[in-house]
Design brief:
Belongs to the CinA family. Pfam families: CinA, CinA_KH, MoCF_biosynth. With 416 residues, the chain is an alpha/beta fold. 42% of the residues lie in helices and 26% in strands. The protein folds into three domains: 170 residues, 3-Layer(aba) Sandwich (Molybdenum Cofactor Biosythetic Enzyme, Chain A); 79 residues, 2-Layer Sandwich (Alpha-Beta Plaits), CATH 3.30.70.2860; 154 residues, Maf protein.
């Protein structure tokens, strides 16, 4: 089946100046992906007629579908309608249906229709009006040599309503679309390059209609397998088989699939095993607790925390020995273990986990540079410890440490 490609063009100087964020192209991309349409390119251009015409002509050379947002308002800088009319050699004419829509909007607002708003009812002759139920600017659908150009308002809630009710159904009628499926494998604790080497043989053996993408994050890499085919069930079955071949190679690094976050995976492990947990945090300052409690229902397993930032709190609340602090320093394996044991006993939970380190940018030494973090877990009568070296700024170090701590919990539960 022939693939259908699309370009998305957003028009507006305010986007280029960074005054507003372009959320339209992201949302449109998701909708097209669900239909089986591949977005080839998305880009923003200025409110200039020549640029609009140039962009549309260039996109039509490569794509069957061009979706445009922005530049349809009533003011002089809204040039999209005029540019498209010139591009396709069409004159503007009064669209009576569009005029009725605009008149109805002004009547409902209790206002008199102005001439400038009346001009919005003039559309390129040969285009098909797309009703805007949430604004005064109608959209336009152009059939151009078996290809389609759609122009919509830049206001997101107007565009989304127009896309959902009219544009997407018309696209499905217009094109014979393939099936595109994505399956995401969530990994943690292994870098992108190491993961790539580990699964290279499997990746090289994938059939041509299946493609793998690496989506790295902080201490995590998402593997996105994308398949293109004619039948959804057949394609899904084939992708499931390929993933089943892959998993034995990387099982120790896989914590879930799809949109599952590591804190959700850890929470489900704790809930399934009916275990409770508490945190003793120094350098992460409560961020680990935040991650654990960001999940609905976390009160099933999470009981509380001691933010033992100052050494005096480590001693008073967690019973960390002054001698241990004096001999090894707050950032040490020994202190981390006593913190974990202390919070487990204090809050009477099954698992106590601690973090103590140097978030930076100050406080580092040659022996313990910025980013040095010790963490420990007290569980099942045993103490487990782990040292990491975070690579970033203060906030990145805090976030990275919390994610590593979550993976430390996962590893400990899976091994215990």
């Amino acid at each position: 089946m022939k693939e259908v490609f699309a370009d998305i063009v957003t028009i507006g100087d305010e986007i280029l100046y960074g005054q507003i964020l372009d959320t339209n192209s992201q949302w449109i991309s998701q909708q097209l992906d669900d239909l089986g349409i591949k977005v080839r390119r998305k880009y923003s251009i200025s409110d200039k007629s020549e640029l609009i015409k140039e962009a549309v002509k260039e996109s039509l050379e490569k794509c069957q579908l061009v979706l445009i947002t922005g530049g349809l308002g009533p003011t002089k800088d809204d040039l999209t309608k005029h540019a498209l009319a010139e591009c396709f050699g069409m004159s503007l004419e009064l669209n009576h249906s569009a005029l009725e829509d605009v008149e109805d909007i002004f009547k409902r607002m209790g206002k008199e229709l102005t001439e400038i708003n009346r001009q919005q009812a003039f559309l390129p002759k040969g285009s098909v009006k797309i009703t805007n139920e949430r604004g005064t600017a109608p959209g336009m659908w152009f059939d151009i040599d078996k290809k389609v150009v759609v122009s919509m308002p830049g206001v997101p809630f107007e565009m989304k309503a127009m896309m959902t009710k009219t544009v997407l159904p018309k696209i499905k009628q217009k094109f014979t679309l393939p099936v595109i499926l994505h399956q995401v494998i969530r990994t943690i604790g292994i870098g992108e390059s190491w993961l790539s080497e580990k699964i290279a043989r499997w990746e090289d053996a994938l059939p041509n209609h299946l493609a793998l993408a690496y989506l790295p994050g902080r201490n995590q890499v998402r593997l996105r397998l994308t398949g293109v085919g004619d039948d959804r069930e057949t394609l899904k079955s084939e992708m499931d088989e390929e993933i089943a071949k892959l998993l034995p190679t990387i099982q120790q690094f896989v914590y879930g699939f799809g949109d599952l976050e590591i804190e959700e995976a850890v929470g489900e492990l704790l809930r399934t095993r009916e275990l409770t947990i508490a945190t003793a945090e120094s350098c992460t300052g409560g961020f680990l607790s935040h991650k654990l409690t960001s999940i609905s229902g976390s009160s099933d397993y999470y009981l509380g925390s001691v933010i033992a930032y100052h050494n005096s709190i480590k001693q008073q609340e967690l019973k960390v020995s002054p001698k241990t602090l004096e001999k090894h320093g707050a950032v040490s394996e020994e202190v981390a273990k006593e913190m974990a044991e202390g919070v487990r006993k204090k809050l009477k939970v099954d698992i106590g986990i601690s973090t103590t380190g140097i978030a930076g940018p100050d406080g580092g030494t040659e022996e313990k540079p910025v980013g040095t973090v010790w963490m420990a877990i007290s569980f099942g009568g045993k103490l487990y410890s782990q040292k990491i070296q975070s690579p970033g700024t203060r906030l990145l170090n805090i976030e990275y440490s919390a994610i590593k701590a979550l993976d430390f919990i996962r590893q400990t539960l899976n091994e215990g």
